Amino acid sequence: MAVQEIALTTSGAPGNSLVDRLHGLVVTVDHKKLGLMYVGTAVGFLLVAGLLALAIRLQLAVPNNTFLEPDVFNRFFTMHGTSMVFLVGMALVSGFGNYLVPLMIGTRDMAFPRLNAFGYWMYLFGGLLLYFSYLGAPGLAGHGSAPDVGWFAYAPLTGPAFSRGHSTDYWILSLLLTSIGSTVSAINVIATAVSLRCKGMTLMRMPLLVWLMIVVNFMILLALPALSAAQIMLLIDRYLGGHFFDTQAGGSAVIWQHFFWIFGHPEVYILIIPAFACVSEIVPVFSRKPIFGYPVMVGATVMIGLISTSVWAHHMFSVGMTSVGNTFFAISTFMVAVPTGIKIFNWLGTMFGGRIRFDLPMLFCIAFLFQFLIAGLTGMMLGVAPLNWQLTDSYFVVAHFHYTLVGGFLFGMFAGIYYWYPKAVGRLLDRRLGLWHFWLFVIGFHVTFDTMHFPGLLGMPRRIFTYDAGRGWDTLNFVTTIGAVLQAAGILCFVINLVRSAKQGKLAGNDPWDAWTLEWTTSSPPAEYNFATKPEVRSRRPLWDLKHPEDPDWQYE
Amino acid sequence: MINDASLPLTSAASDWSLPSSRKVAIVCLILTETGLFSIFVAAYLFYLGKSLTGPTPREVLETPVIPTICLLGSSLTIMLAERALRRQHRRYFQLWWTITILLAALFLGATAIEWHRLITIDHLTISTNLFGTTFYSLVGLHASHVIAGLCLLTLVLFFSFRGLVTPAQHGRIEMVSWYWHFVDAVWVIVFTVVYVISR
Q1: For residues A201 and A210, what is the distance between their CA atoms, to the nearest angstrom?
Q2: Which residues have CB under 8 Å from B122's CB, separation 6+?
Q3: Residues on chain B bordering chain A, Cβ-to-Cβ distance under 8 angstroms
Q4: Which DSSP string do the residues of A218-274 spell out, in sequence order?
């Protein structure tokens, strides 16, 4: 019955001209198209923000360089950070959630498809508004340009007295827009995963990715309002003469930091957990073993979500909190390492004794494991309050969080893209170009960010636009820049691969990786309705049950 | 295009039911709104007594007893309206729903009068001191939620008079009432923080 209805709607397919296809993108409410639009837009912003990073690195390559003016440099690192977190990271989270959650739980679309489209367009226009600041902020007064206050925009430096013109307003308003997009997308993913699972898919049979997406989206719901509230307060200060962050009227110079990091620290887990999610799906398939310790993985993720709400002030050890405060936040920071360590051991346990296939998604996962481990360890170093006083605001911190966000998050996302691209496009990404991407990026990554720890230890502060020769930072900075160029070359291979393989890649078939979750039962790319008949599952690996009727999983779970 | 795996049916499948996505979504919305209000409440409490100049809360604030009764009462009337709809009493639904709207409007009117008095007589504006900044932000954030709720309520009443609100729509109407209960619950917090603790 359902099959016939659907067959009728697909027969009237629109034309294939460029205008028709663009029109299709504008009016679509299909979770797969929107998911791909999220990922595509995010890759676009990744390129722009990556170019900004490259410019920053070129400026810092040699001492007393004049490649970028100081104010241009400030704008570049602000736009780089803001774009990477809100326009790349959050969009990849939404994109993967949108594309994969309905497919993995065996349903036909998100719970609220139109709300989904609304979320995407809020995100896109928020992102465009941020970059429009280059043209819009100078305005008639010719005052200011893009935001130049850092991605965390510490008030009171962003207050009306110190940030003239409209650059900070662009930062506030564009992020308020993307936050609305992220919030509705989060509500949608949770409602979908909770309410639309196919028959038999109990909570403990959900693929880990879906579990992790639920946790992440709850974190978005709890953390983002803190940023929005702080931004609304800042707007009140800037436009209505409020005093939230106005020290002249008794306002606090520290409370913005609290509000920002109440959002900001969960935010970094919001970014890294989707990478965990991809790794948790990919490692079992390429190790030919079910995931090791599924319930513990779920519990560890929920624990990360809970603990992450009480670690924010470890970003603020140097503002002079009480010793009780410092101790509390140091201890809670160490506690996050426990569930995270459990996860790393579980991935290793999954790989242990498995028949590992070194395909591209798996390569990125393995690199992820090692890099994320090191990133976690430097995180622990920074969690030690006294050492933090020494290292804070130095390049050591920059190296640490790029280790988590590039070496962890981005590698996880690359793994996910190599893994699900064949499902979304119907063709495999080219292996040779993929290997070029992998090796250039891995080597570039380590050359850049391993090296970057050392100028930090030697006292090089972050956000400086240049430095004098002879401080022992020269060679290290030059090497760091070489690594950045290598990474850029790797990204170039990746983008060429994405574009070329869409036309010329090997046909993937429904299930190129011999995987076990429901999305691989659909055609590649899946039909608009995903599943002609709604599937029903009896275990965590429904496709395994189907392929191995003699030894199905549900006999053991 | 149809290449689905037909997976074996189980006996448990017949009684497969999940929570309504609408309810999950509204609970999520309430959760994130709670986060927003928490930060404003935290700011209000943090800046309590830190204003460098007057007026202070003790000098100018008066406990809004009647508006509070109106708003909390509207939670009751919307419940009665909802029950009337479920029992297919359209007239009663419209009656209770209209009363709810009137009570909400009374609350907003009282807020307007209070603000007018504060601004013109007590000379407290959002830029006067920290108290003004935090007071107008927190109470204003709540009032803006009341306004949003009032729009929703009025829209439903309009649809009801066009004959579009049938008992089949009860699930949707229920969500409006959940949001309304949330707005009322927030007022309990705001009232306690602003008018009880702080004076």
Answers
A1: 11
A2: B55, B59, B60
A3: 1-10, 12-13, 16, 18-22, 24-25, 28-29, 31-33, 35-36, 38-40, 43, 46-47, 50-52, 126-127, 129-130, 133-134, 137, 141
A4: HHHHHHHHHHHHHHHHHHHHHHH---TT-GGGT--SSHHHHHHHHHHHHHHHHHHHH
- B29-33 contacts at long range (C-beta below 8 A, 24 or more positions apart): B29/A187, B29/B179, B30/B178, B30/B179, B30/B182, B31/A218, B31/A221, B31/A222, B32/A183, B32/A186, B32/A187, B32/A221, B32/A222, B32/A224, B32/A225, B33/A225, B33/B145, B33/B182, B33/B186
- With CB atoms and an 8 Å threshold, state whether A224 touches B32: yes
Q: Return the percentage of chain A with pLDDT > 70, whole number.
A: 96
Residue B66: is it exposed, middle or buried by C-beta count within 10 angstroms (0-12/13-18/19+)? exposed
Report the candidate in B180, B23, B56, B75 with the shortest Cα–Cα distance to residue B130.
B56
Distance CA A169, CA A156 (A): 14
- Contact at 8 Å (CB) between A182 and A142? no
Q: Which neighbouring-strand residues pair with A507? A: A427
Which tokens is A20 given? 């028709």
DSSP A507: B
Partners of A394 in the β-ladder: A461
Minimal Cα–Cα distance from B91 to chain A, Å? 32
The pLDDT tens digits for A42-100 are 999 999 999 999 999 999 999 999 999 999 999 999 999 999 999 999 999 999 999 99
Kindly report the length of chain B.
199
Amino acid identity at B109: G
Residue A1 has pLDDT above 80, yes or no: no
Chain B residue with minimal CA distance to A197?
Answer: B18
Q: Is B137 helix (H, G, I), strand (E, B) or coil?
A: helix
The predicted-structure confidence for B54-103, as pLDDT tens digits, reads as follows 899 999 999 999 999 999 999 999 999 999 999 999 999 999 999 999 99
The end-to-end CA distance of chain A, in Å, is 33
DSSP annotation of A513 reads T
The pLDDT score that the predictor gives to residue A141 is 63
Q: What is the ipTM of this complex?
A: 0.92
Closest CA to B185 of B19, B32, B37: B37
**Region of B163 on the Ramachandran plot (φ > 0 left; ψ -120 to 50 alpha; else beta):** left
Which chain B residues are within 8 Å of A535, Cβ to Cβ? 4-5, 7
A63 Cβ neighbours under 8 A, 6+ residues apart:
A466, A467, A468, A469, A470, A473, A474, A477
Burial class of residue B38 (count of CB atoms within 10 Å of its CB; 0-12, 13-18, 19+): middle
For residue B168, count other CB atoms closer than 10 A to its CB. 7
List the single residue in B6, B13, B22 with the smallest CB-CB distance to A199. Answer: B13
A243/B10 CB distance under 8 A: no
pLDDT average, residue stretch A165-173: 92
Place of tokens 């426990």: A338
- Dmax over Cα atoms in chain B, in whole Å? 75
The answer to whether the CB of A110 falls within 8 A of the CB of A116 is: yes
Tokens of A387: 């050492």
Fill in the DSSP letter of residue A554.
G
Instruction: Give the C-alpha separation, A48 to A42, whole Å.
Output: 10
Q: Which amino acid is at A522?
A: T
Which H or E run includes A382? helix A360-383
The answer to whether the CB atoms of B43 and A255 lie below 8 A apart is yes
The 3-state DSSP class for residue A460 equals coil
A264: number of Cβ within 10 Å: 18
A532: nearest CB among B2, B50, B129: B2
- Give, as one character, the DSSP assignment of residue B193: I
